Amino acid sequence: MLKEDKRFMRKEYVYTLFVLKFLLGIGLIYWTIATTMKSDVGQDADNAFLSTYQDVDRNYNNMMESNKIFGSKYNVKFLFNNQEVVGLSIEDVFLAQRSIQARKDRKDMVNVGENKFTILVQDKDGNDITNKTVKILVTKNTTHTEDVKLEYQNEDTKEFIINSIGYWNITGTIDIQGDKGFFYIKTNAKKES
After folding, report:
1. R_g of the chain, CA atoms, integer Å
2. Could you tell me the CA-to-CA distances from 95 to 7, 50, 131 in Å, in that order?
3. Which end of the chain is more exposed for a tag (fewer CB within 10 A), N or C?
């Protein structure tokens, strides 16, 4: 009488299945790396504070010290489509873009269509500062194809157009006679009402 083989699969099938799974795993690893390399992940300039990520990382403490000095000399008020932000705001740089949904201020600051940004700067005595250079980048957090660059040279107000809804970052610098202040605001664009 022959003994019945109670093993589920023959040994050759098990080895073949193991080799096929191993090759499939290697193939998926290769596919992941090839797809990632084609997608330009990490290749775009972050542009936070109008600088590269590496420069911001390297000089962050100096930038915050510069903000402190700037804040001790000047008062800054931003008007983004009639929404007011007082002071050099940088706390948004630490927040996820989704945090905009939960908050009530700094929401819907950008409109799809016409936008008007005003920057008012005064010294601590209340005198208006007109001799200033302000550089602003309004950028989507997912792509830089719709970036809007604004440069104010001794002026207070600029108008521009945004073409799509979504989450937007407003970042930039204010330079007054060598004193430099940095700001970073996260918001979203809504349809113009």
Report:
1. 27
2. 57, 18, 33
3. N
| Contact call for residues 141 and 184 (beta carbons, < 8 A) | no
Cβ neighbours of residue 156 closer than 8 Å, sequence gap 6 or more: 118, 119, 120
Q: How far apart are the first and last CA of the chain?
A: 88
Consecutive H or E run containing 21: helix 11-38
The pLDDT tens digits of the residues spanning 86-127 come to 888 777 777 776 777 777 777 778 888 899 999 999 999 989
- Residue at token pair 């201020």: 105
Q: Residue 62: what residue type?
A: N
52 and 99 Cβ atoms separated by less than 8 Å: no
Are 105 and 84 within 8 A, CB to CB? no
Buried b (16+ CB within 10 A) or exposed e, 9-43: eeeeeeeeeeeeeeeeeeeeeeeeeeeeeeeeeee
The answer on pLDDT for 42 being more than 80 is no
pTM, 2 dp: 0.70
How far apart, in Å, are the Cα atoms of 142 and each of 15, 77, 91, 139, 166?
46, 28, 20, 9, 9
